[in-house]
């Protein structure tokens, strides 16, 4: 493993236009294209494609195409989770989704962050910070989860919310930025 990929996996600043990372991107591109393809053969093979694409996928996981990710291999999804159309998971750092979660259409899980310094940003520096979603979480349509966020189990996040900070277990959060509006029983 090269130094650049090692830095990425350690959560340090790295340059994404690296040949080793490009090979991983090509792998992901081919698998996502096969997964998202229309037609009978692709539909029948989707579970196998997910097993090859993702780092770990529990039983009875359903992801409706189209689905996009950066690498795939840094995503772990627990059993019985449902992901609706248009999901984008930028997994330059680990994304862990618990069991029996529901993610609405067009949910984005974004582990990548970029330099605030303009010169370093122009050079392309970025890093990833993991996202963790507990069991039984429901993310409404269009929810965006920012780098480094943990969402506790049994939490519901309303449609269109932008989750920039951790959310505790068992709450309802809405808005931009997402804020807790009540505890769920």
What would your notes on this structure say?
There is one protein chain. By secondary structure, the chain is α/β, with parallel strands linked by helices. It has one domain (3-183): Hexapeptide repeat proteins (UDP N-Acetylglucosamine Acyltransferase, domain 1). The protein contains four helices and 19 strands. Helix 2 (19-36) runs antiparallel to helix 3. The longest helix is centred in the N-terminal third of the chain and has 18 residues, at 19-36. The radius of gyration is 17 Å and the shape is globular. The N and C termini lie far apart (47 Å).
What radius of gyration results from the CA coordinates? 17 Å
Q: Sum up the overall morphology in one term.
A: globular
Widest sheet: strand ordering: 2-5-8-13-16-18-19
Do you know the CATH topology? UDP N-Acetylglucosamine Acyltransferase, domain 1
Distance between the termini: 47 Å
Total count of domains:
1
Structural classification = alpha/beta
Which percent bin holds the helix content? 10-25%
Q: How do the helices and strands follow one another from N- to C-terminus? A: HHHEEEEEEEEEEHEEEEEEEEE
Tell me the fraction of residues in β-strands, as a range.
25-35%
**Mean pLDDT value:** 95
State the total count of DSSP E strands: 19
What would you say the CATH architecture is? 3 Solenoid
Largest sheet: 7 strands, mixed
The count of helical stretches stands at 4
Assigned CATH superfamily: Hexapeptide repeat proteins
